[in-house]
Amino acid sequence: MKKHHQDIRDLIYVHLNQTDQYVLSYGIEFGEFAAAFSGSLNQLLLLKHRFDDADFNMHTQLEYCPEERINKLAQEDVYGYGDFCWIDFLEEEVLNELSDQEMAELLFLGHQKKHLKSPFYNKLGNRFVYLAHDDGWLNKIYYRSFKDFFHLLSEVIAGKLGELKLEKTILGIRKKRAYPQVNKEILLSLTPFIKEGICFSLRDADHQRTRIEIPIWVMGDFANMDDMYEEYEQISNKPCDAKIIFDKKTKEWKLNVI
Question: Which domain of life is it from (predicted)?
Answer without folding.
Answer: Bacteria
